[in-house]
Every structure is written in C-alpha cells, then in structure tokens.
Amino acid sequence: MELDPDDLFRDDEDDPDNELYQERESTKxxxxxxxxxxxxxxxxxxxxxxxxxxxxxxxxxxxxxxSLRKQIINASYDEVAICFFNTREKRNLQDxxxxxxxxxxxxxxxxxxxxxxxxxxxxVEESFMSKIGSQYGITSGSRENSLYNALWVxxxxxxxxxxxxxxxxxxxxxxxxxxxxxxxxxxxxxMMRTTLQRAKDAQDLGISIELLPLCRPDDDFNVSTxxxxxxxxxxxxxxxFMPTVGEKLEDMKDQLRKRMYKKRIVRKITFSIANGIxxxxxxxxxxxxxxPGAITWLDSVSNRRLKAERSFVCADTGALVQESVKRCQPxxxxxxxxxxxxxxxxxxxxxxxLRLLGFKPLNCLKEFHxxxxxxxxxxSDQELIGSTCxxxxxxxxxxxxxxxxxxxxxxxSRPQLVALVAQEEIISAxxxxxxxxxxxxxxxxxxxxxxxEELHKGSNVAAPxxxxxxxxxAANLINRLDLKDFSVFQFANPALQRHYAVLQALALDExxxxxIKDETLPxxxxxxxxxxxxxxxxFKLSVYGDNYDEESxxxxxxxxxxxxxxxxxxxxxxxxxxxxADLADNxxxxxxxxxxxxxxxxxxxxxxxxxxxxxxxxxLTHMGK
Amino acid sequence: MAxxxxxxxxxxxxxxxxxxxxxxxxxxxxMLVEKKLIYSKYDEVGVVLFGTxxxxxxxxxxxxGYDHIVVLQxxxxxxxxxxxxxxxxxxxTHNGDFLDAVIVGMDMLIKxxxxxxxxxxxxxxxxxxxxxxxxxxEGTREDQVITISGHMNTQGMRMESIVIxxxxxxxxxxxxxxxxxxxxxxxxxxxxxxxxxVESPISLLGALKTRKISPVxxxxxxxxxxxxxxxxxxxxxxxxxxKFPTLKxxxxxxxxxxxFATHEVEVDIQYKIAEDPSNVVPPEERIKGYRYGPQVIPIxxxxxxxxxxxxxxxxxxxxxxxxxxxxxxxxxxDVNIFIAEPGNKGSILAVSALARAMKxxxxxxxxxxxxxxxxANVVVGALTPNVSDNDNIPDSFYFNVLPxxxxxxEFQFPSFNNFPASWQPNELQQEAADDFxxxxxxxPSGKQEVLPPDLTPNPVLERFYRYLELKSRDPDTAVPPIDxxxxxxxxxxxxxxxxxxxxxxxxxxxxxxKENPKLKKSSRRLLKExxxxxxxxxxxxxxxxxxxxxxxxxxxxxxxxxxxxPVQDFEAMMSRRDSxxxxxxxxxxxxxxxxxxxxxxxxxxxxxxxxxxxxxxxxGCILEQEPNQFNDFLRSLCKxxxxxxxxxxxxxxxxxxxxxIPKTEAIDSEVTDAEARSFLIKSEPxxx
Lengths: 625, 688
Fold this sequence. Notes:
The complex is a heterodimer of chains A (about 625) and B (about 700).
Chain A: E1 29-36, H1 39-43, E2 45-47, E3 53-55, H2 56-73, E4 79-85, E5 99-102, H3 115-122, H4 124-131, H5 146-157, E6 167-174, H6 185-204, E7 207-213, H7 227-231, H8 235-241, H9 249-260, E8 267-274, E9 277-284, E10 295-299, E11 306-314, E12 320-321, E13 326-331, E14 334-338, H10 340-346, E15 354-361, E16 375-379, E17 384-385, H11 387-401, E18 403-409, E19 416-423, E20 426-428, E21 431-434, E22 437-442, H12 468-480, H13 494-507, H14 524-527, H15 530-544, H16 548-556, H17 559-575, H18 580-585, H19 594-603, H20 612-623
Parallel strand pairs in A: 1-4, 1-6, 6-7, 8-15
Antiparallel strand pairs in A: 2-3, 4-5, 8-9, 9-16, 11-12, 13-14, 15-18, 16-22, 18-19, 19-22, 20-21
Helix pairs in contact in A: 2-9, 5-6, 12-15, 17-19, 19-20
Chain B: E1 7-13, H1 22-39, E2 44-50, H2 58-62, E3 69-77, H3 80-87, H4 98-113, E4 121-127, H5 141-155, E5 157-164, H6 174-190, E6 192-198, H7 201-205, E7 219-226, E8 229-237, E9 248-250, E10 265-273, E11 276-280, E12 286-292, E13 295-298, H8 301-307, E14 314-322, E15 336-340, H9 345-361, E16 363-370, E17 379-386, E18 396-401, H10 427-439, H11 459-473, H12 484-490, H13 494-499, H14 501-510, E19 514-515, H15 519-529, H16 533-554, H17 566-574, H18 581-600, H19 607-623, H20 627-643, H21 647-655, H22 673-682
Parallel strand pairs in B: 1-2, 1-4, 4-5, 5-6, 7-14
Antiparallel strand pairs in B: 2-3, 7-8, 8-15, 10-11, 12-13, 14-16, 15-18, 16-17, 17-18
Main location (chain A): nucleus
Keywords (chain A): ATP-binding, DNA damage, DNA recombination, DNA repair, DNA-binding, Helicase, Hydrolase, Nucleotide-binding, Nucleus
EC number (chain A): 3.6.4.12
C-alpha cells in the first residue's frame, strides 16, 4: 500500500533498522482516556505562566489533544477512546449513568484518531457544559458509582483485539484523591470494594490502569487514600510514583505528557564485556527523525487505494524472474555473480551481539564521529540476573573517569563500531529530562570520513588565523547573542506542522489552511537591538576593516558568475545583429551555426540544450511561428 | 570521463625493516586498485619500490645515483594485472631512501604529464622512515625538502605520506626518526601533502582513502549572523556513510549461447485497485494520497506545491548556546563542515575568530539551514568549532543536525537510586569496575589510539572487495573466513585481554551473573497478563509441549472428545503425532461438540463451556494453520444461532472478545483485523 516511488529501487537489504523509526501495526496499543469531569475539575485551577489560571479539566484535555496530534505525526496505529465521567449526560454502550464517551462521526468509540476528532476535542470545553454537563457522580444517598461505571465502560471498550498482539491501557485523569469522601459507612466500604474489584477484573484481562493525578502546590494528591489500591501500587513503588508536585503548570503538563507514552523496546541486546561476562540490555530509540507519511497512490476517479505490484522481468527474454535472483557487480569487464547467501555471509560479523573492545577518554570522541541518530540502552535483569548491577557499576566508573566504551555492534544490516557514552540522570521540575543509561553512538569508519578541510589547502599562502583582538570581538558578539536556556528540541518542525495542517484542513474540507508559525526563524527584532548592532559592527570592523561591503560584493560575483554575465551581455549584443523574423520567414535559420542560434536563445532567456533542430524549433515556437 | 582521471604513484619502502608491514600494504594497495577498477577505471597508477636489491629507474640512467629504487610499474591505466602486481611485492634487502623515491615518483609524473593535470597527480609514500636520507650535495636536508616542495606546488602534485611505526616495524634510532618526521612535516606544511602515522595493521588498512569521491558543496553562500553581517561559506559533507555497493540483479534466463545478452533485470511496477486486481491503473489516473491517521487524503502534485512549506534558501544564525546543553547523543545525522570561502580573507578570518572564541567560551552556534532553493524542510543544527593547528588549513565549523520536538520520545526510566539494594554495586564491585574501565584502555598514553574512527576501515567493505577479486579469478570460490587483522575490529584484542588478565578476573569474580531460573515460568505467566510479540513464539512451544507430557503421564491415547474434559481431549488429540489424521478429526469432533453444547443449552447454562471449547479450537486452528476451518465454523455457528433464536450466544461471545482469526494471527486467513473484530459486534443490536 505505501510505496514511496523513490524507494522502489532501494536495495532490499538496505537498512532494516529503518522500519524501527516508524511504529508498526503489530505493536499498537489501545488506550482509553478516562477524564474526570466533576465540578472539582473545573473549579480547581493552577496558575499558568502568563498570570491566567487554567482549570484542571483544561490541562487534561489539552494533554490528550496534544498526544493525539503527536500520534498522527508519528503515523501510529494506536487506537484511542476518550471518555468523561462524572457527567450529567450519558453515552455508552452499557447505558451507564455519569459516563460519556466522546466521539465524532465516521469513527468507532475506540479507533484511530481522525482529523475531526482532533478538531472537536480541541473545542470540547466551549460546549461541554451545555452538551455533556458536569456533576458529581458519587453522592451520599444514591447507589450510583460513576468511577465504577467509568472503569466498566473502559473495559468494555477495550475488549476488541487480543492481548497477544496489543497493549491495552486506561489512563485516568483526576484531581480527586478520595472519590468516596462524600459518603460514609457501609455504603462507602461496599462501593470501594466493588470499584477495586472492577479494576482488578480489568487488570486480570490484561488491561493496565494508570493514574495521572492533577494537583496544586498547596493541595497534595494523596495516592494512598484510595488510588494506590486501584492501580496496584505498594511501598517503594508508591514513593517512585508520585512525581514531585510542580510549581508551574508547564511542569505538571510535562509530567503528564511524559507519562502518557509507553516505552517501546527496539531490541534486546547481549553485551559481552570480557572473558565470558555478558549482560542483558534493552535498546530504545529515543531520537529518530519523524518524516511525513509515505505517499499512498489512489485512483483519481474513485479515490480508492492502489496496490503496487512489482515484478522483475528479464531484459533479454522478457520472462518473469523470481525475487531471489543472483546479484552481480561488473568488474574487470565481467559480471561477477553473487548469491544472496554469499552476500549475507560477507556481512556477518558476530551476529546481533554487542562486544566491548575497550575504553577511551571522552575527548577521543570527536564532533564529527557521527552518522545516525543514537540509540539508548538500559539494563534488564529479566533474563540475566545481575545485569543491572554490572551496568550501574560500569556506568558510575565511566562517568567518574570521563571515559566512554568502544564496542562492536554486529547488527545484521551494518556491523559497526559504536561508542557507549554514559549519561547521568538529569531531573528538572518537569520530571526526568535525561534518563540514566548509555547512549550508543554509531561511529564512522575511515571510509566514511572525508578530509574536506584539506581540500583547499593553500599551496603557498598560509591560511590566516584570527588575531587575539578579533577573537575578543567575536567573544563579545557571542555574549550578546546568547540563547539563554536553549533546549535542543524546543522547535517544532515547521515542514511537518505545515504538512499535517494542510492535511487536516483538506480532511475537514476547510478552505483556509491555518498559518503555522515557523519557530526556527531568527529573532529579527532582537538582532536589531542597538547593543547587538553595535557588537556586530565592531566585529565587522575588526575582521574586515573598512571594506566589508566591497568584500562581500566581490565574493558574491565569483569568477564563474562574472563570466556567465559577460556571456549573456555578449549574446544580447550579438543578437541585435540578426533579423530573426526575416531569417525565420525565409527558412534560413538552418543556415546559421549553433553558436549563432544560441544568441537568440540566451538573449531571450530560453534553454540552450538540444540538437540544432531542437534549437530552431524552440526559436520558432518562441516567435510564435 | 577521462577528463576526471587521476594519476597516482605508489612509493613503497620494501626494505628489510618494512617486511612485516608489507602484507597489509599489499592489501591496501590492491584495494585501491580494485576500487579504481570499479569506480574510476580510467585512473592511472604507477608503482615505485625502494630499498630493493636492484636499481631500475629513469633517473639513474640519466643522471646516476638513485640506487635501490625500482620502477615496478610505469604509470598506466589500471587493469587486472596491476592488482596482481601489488599483491606480490618483492621484498627488498636495503634500507630505503624515501626522498630519492619521492624524486623518482615526481620525475615519472612530470615526464608523463608535464604541467597538465594539476591537482590530479598524487604520490603515496609508504615508509617507516627509520633510516637517514642521503645528505644533499649542497645545503641541508631541510633546504632540499623545501626545494622539492616548491616543485610539487608548481606541478600541482599532492602527496600522502603514511609513516608506519610501532609493532609493525620494530625499533630504530629516535634521533633519525625525529629528523625524518620533521622533513616529512615540511611537506605537509608547505604543499598539499598529508602525513599519517600508523602503529597497527588495522590503522594501516584505513590510512589511505581507497575510493576517490569528488567533493561537492551542499551549499555556497552567506552564513547570516545578522542581516548586517554575512560570512561567505562553503558547506561540504564531513562524514557520509560509504554504503555496501548496490549490486544489480542478474538474470540467467538468456541462453548461454547468446553472447550479447545483458543479463539485466528490469523492474515493472503496476498499480492496481486492491479490490479489482485485473485492472491496471495508468499513471495519469493516479493521484497521490497522504495519510492522516486512518484517512488517506488525495492531493495532486500541483495543489501540493501550492500549499506546502517553502522556505527560502539561507543559513541563519539563531544564537549561541552552552556546549554542555547540546549533548552528544542529540546529533541526528552524518556531519557537515562549514569552510570559509577559499581565498576570501575576510571570511576566513571571521570564521576563525568565531571558532576560536566559541572554543574559549565553550559555546556552540545554533543555525537554521535551508541548503537549496525548493528544499521542503528546514534543518536546525549546531556549529561546533574545529580549530586547526596547521597553519596551512583554515579554521572551520562542524555542523550537526539537532532533533525537532517531533523527533524526540521522552520515555521515562527508573532512577538507578530507586533500584533495590541488591542491584546496586557495593564498594568492592565499584572499585573493580573502576579498575576495569581505567585499565582496559584503547588510548594508552604515549601510544597511538587503538581503533580511531579516522583510521579504521569498514571490515564489511574490505571483505566484499577482497572476495570480489577472488571471485573474478574463480567464480566458485567460497567466502573466505574473516582475516586476523579485520577480526581485531569486531573482537577485543587478545593481547590487551592478556595484559589486563588480573583486572578482568577481579572484575569478573566480583559480580554474580546467572540466568533467570524463573524465566520459563514467569514468561508463561507474563503471557497471560501482558504478552508481547516476541514471547508469542515461545508460547507456541509451551502449548505443544504440555499436552505431550500429559500424554506420557496418563499413558492413554485419546481418540475422541468426551463430555467431561473436552478441551483437554482436544488438545491431546491435536498433539498426537502418530498420524496426521488426528488433527482433522480433532477439529471435526470439537466442532460437533460445540454445536451440541450450544444447541442443548438451557438459558445459556452451557455457554461458558462452549466458549472454552471455542477458545481451544481457535488456538488449535492457529497452531495448525487452519484458520479457515475455525472462521467458517464460527460464521455458520452464528448463523445457526440467529436462525434458532439463540442470538444470546453471539452476544455472549462478543463480550468475551472472541473473534475470527485474522491474517495477523494466521497467515492463511482471509480475514482482516477489522473484519475479525467487527464480526460479532456487527451481529449485535446497537444499543444507541
């Protein structure tokens, strides 16, 4: 179905790792977002950055909406359902009170997100009170239990798909740590028991329930009141679970956002250290380029999907050839033939294993020792007990001694030397910024490194290096143009954002495409501040002297461009010497030389390629004859 | 083609002290010639040996002197004989004079090309420079080298000197080596020459670029610090993966008698509507569609061009950031290099001043790049300073691409401190680890770094080209095993292990590693709770094992499905291996059993049991690759239920997540995932 035409001729074995960049259908997950919509969610607010207050409900919904957008961009197959509880209205298959499954047309309750869903969930707050309504679902005097109902609805939504192939999760957003606080006595214990039982039933079916508590700095969310039993936490885990309560709304959002994603292991790797010591690692792709989705060809009349069928045809006989044909490489005027087995044998170097070769100081890892995005590795005790302990010890030593490990990674696609760089855990108010572990950096071979800087090695003139004064001026400039708190991935990719904004508008049949702000553009305003302009002028003066403008003018018109310009001027001049209309009418164009014909073409800014006949016909077409 | 041809003269020291390095040099040179035969077959190569017993060169005939230098091969276009020539270099008996050899090589190049082909004439010198060169008739050796350098420059020659030291060539007098190094260094300072020292066989193999790649700029234009300050730069690739060659598909369909057969394979692509495979859709009736979640949105190329993101070609500075904020693992791609426009003094100085200031202050520059007009995306990356210590080479910047928000997955990992105490290394263990990390050293002080990326060849490519050469002589030869030198790239050095045996042993004895004994069981338990795809395969085996063991303990062979334990009976029958018919019989019997259970049920009392049987049947059908047996049965069963007013059974099944077997679970199935899931749900009356 998805065939990028450019990819068709790619070698089959090219890069199987690539598929890991995009998520696959077989590892999809099914998620139900259960959002508490009780009045407390609307009344409790958290101060946002600009002095405004935001309700917890808004925080939860915007997290979900962001996650849905991200899902679209990652081309994921995950299916989601959005379900509010503690609502006035009800909408669910079981017809239970206080639970409202939010949905849009042409979509199942639990389905992949569509353009309309993303649009509607973004606007849900405007009409929430009138259409869905908020009210406490658990009150004294009634036997209604909205939390129980919500879990039941979620479980029913998740019944599709076998737990063999999919992960099922319920993410519960609430700011009420004691949902049964308003009732007392036997009713309370009874309701708590049945609710916990419902949660346990769901968990027994392979559904994991995760809690995303919303809270305020002055009002802690006490997990142990009720929810620790519901999600099955105890002791140590409990301490780990509760994130530090953020001062800022942004921090809380960050924490929520990070917890919404499930880790996916790319591969389990055996890391053999020395003389028979091996430990178990899991690798994760934390950073991979996200590309716009592949092109799917459609029938332009019916818009139905097209299937591309590739067949291999023998050029000599026209017979069909099977896929697993021999390969050949022309060499010494011959075709040297290889079987597929021979080729894979050549590439085989310690299959799949990661082998430690030794350690080097960190300054041996140069800035240009990079080819591909790195892979993160984290120890696992699942198969080899003791792996984590060895890993932590090495991790600590490497950090302390400022060394990295060099290892050989025998991946079947490209066996490669890698650097394992230990990364210390970094935590900020928004949660974990850098997880502890090691990053596997793919090192280039000598074949991959080019010595381009030596290319223009001046034969006689020594290349000038800057003087101390010039360096000082540059330092001033750097101070002025400092990006405070720059974070590596703070920019959204404008091309991707635009891509999906266009698609979303088209999907919803909207005419105007929303403008996407390109965050990557420099701060023009800041650049024109007098202080900045001053250091720039000083730097310019120090490096270029007075002739900056001349230099750049000279530089712009390099020799080739000058030549080209001269040629055009000459052509224009020569062009005037011919009476083209007359020549054309009398069929005398063919008597001219190609050089003469080109005068006309250049002067009229037409292409000059092709044979003489082509040039003549181009001239005639241009003259309208 | 020929316009682009390069001429290379290999100057190889074959004196006695070089003999141990010669096998690697032979490999390196033959690799050079082999790659030329494929990628630039009009290139010319000459071979000069020095330190030989005899003397055979033009200069000795013309002016005398230049002893023990043999021109093994005059400059000529590469061919298969040359591969063989450089693979069997004769061993010499004298200590070579590399300066004489350089002059002989230059003489050959001048005689052949005169002053033409500037910049495409190259000398490659392999020597250990262990012995003094002949003292010149007048002036010092240094003056002599300076004169030679001057000639090289006027002739437009380049030189690469590979000086082999360390384990490969043994000991020599330090003072002589230092003087020779100094002389060679003059070349690299004054001419387009490069000097590489190598100490290990692997580094020797990686010391020379064996494949010529003409450098192409990615971008030429302004690096805009601000609208008022623009520096002219050229951007090249610094690293770029040299891929395994893309081999052509070979067709052997043509009769062997056909001498003109191309043996080529053409790829033919036809687009068809999935539901109507007989119809081929011509290109003009196709339209591109892009995915948006489950939807595919059609859009023509023209429309797309009108609305897509179109940034202007430019390279703009956003500002400077602290180097420690830009961590190494954020680098996304291969690396580019920013060089000031050659010959433009102002730009060279500006780049140099910035690079040096950035280095001092430990800063990087964040830039936004659009390399070409019409490029559909922007790239944000970091410029890091590359300060040159050679006066001949200007300072430059390395450029690494940084990720966008969309490219990062912020997975959360447990803090190491939160792990149980048994997972934390104790003091003793930590000490052992410290020793190990310190001692198991690839960059010992005073010696050359082992396996530096700049000098380590790609072992796969080495293997491929060597095998290609072998195959060209004997098409049936098998892939040779990995050779000792290349093995050092993929396996730890035995000597290094031996040297650090005590440290490694101490490290090893400190830690206890054992296979998880509970794994089998726990993975089985996990299966029920949270299976993943990879566990699925184990599951297969577990299931087929279990009934077998039952069989042994009970000792009775099951021949039919009884009433008391139909599931167990079924599984036992399915696993009987004494005749293939048992599988078919088991499925058939089970179907009848389920049918009976449903039909006989009173107010649904048999439903749970029927479900159990259905689940077992489903599993069995997947295992035996008989998905259609199950799917057909389930369909007919539901139809039967609806006709017989037993639709409550279908509803019951729907709530229990029983589905048809989709293609993802058994490849022979014709049912898609969606169909499988919706099958029972559909038959259920809507509650809305």
